[in-house]
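User: structure tokens for this one?
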Amino acid sequence: MGTLYLHHSAYLDHLTPVGHPERPDRIRAIDRILEHERFQTLQRDMAPMGRIADIARVHPSSYIDMLHNAAPTDGLVRIDADTTMSPGSWEAAMRGVGSACRAVDEVMEGKVANAFCASRPPGHHAETARAMGFCFFNNAAIAARHAQETYGAERVAIIDFDVHHGNGTQDIFWNDPSVMYCSTHQMPLYPGSGAASERGEADTIVNAPLAAGDGGEEFREAMEVAILPRLETFQPDLVIISAGFDAHQRDPLGGLNLVEADFAWATLRLMDIADRHCGGKVVSLLEGGYDLEGLARSAAAHIMTLMKA
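Assistant:
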């Protein structure tokens, strides 16, 4: 069935201040490396616009309206200390939502084995009614709700290996036994959440924090000991990956020392769990990754592994 790659030129129109790490070149770097002949069988399509109804499953209408109204006609508007909107930001965010939902559609309907969405801005820091950490809408949460309400998925697992904890995803599903959120991340580090003791009301939050300087050995142990057994017990109907590549050793915003092989390994282990419990259904969404070379090489390793399904 193959792997679907969803992207769009509108992501380049979400502009950030000069020197900001979350910049359009991130998407250009991924697109460039995917021009290699080894990706010639990758199925490619444009990300559609998302629907307000899809966002409203996760974020209140007052919050959606606030962001829509905040989008400028020129220049930049600061939403929080490090999160800004430009004239192209609303469309980029809406196509990120549309991409996540389209990926769920294609995977749940059996049209492709799995999908990767190269979208920006990222999403995992967006809380129920708060934009932060470069994020406006929580694409992973929206994808999970879309799978549940459109396809009847009873249990959705979201696995996040970004170097920063996905406080937004944890916030949204803190009281929800139908969604398991699992995260490896550096701690202490922005945004300050993600202790192992944070487990949610239904014990479906699984945090496996890593220390600055940790590398592939510690990362794989955290996955093997803390996360993969919980996923096996949970038996998800869909696996969603919040694929942040800023735990790479080259990244300027983190202090972990992962390399491309570590991301490929984690991808393969999550695919194995999906194979056993949900017919291999995996949707992967780009989160962080701010060194262009580290991001491109890591995303390539991740996508190449997905293509082995």
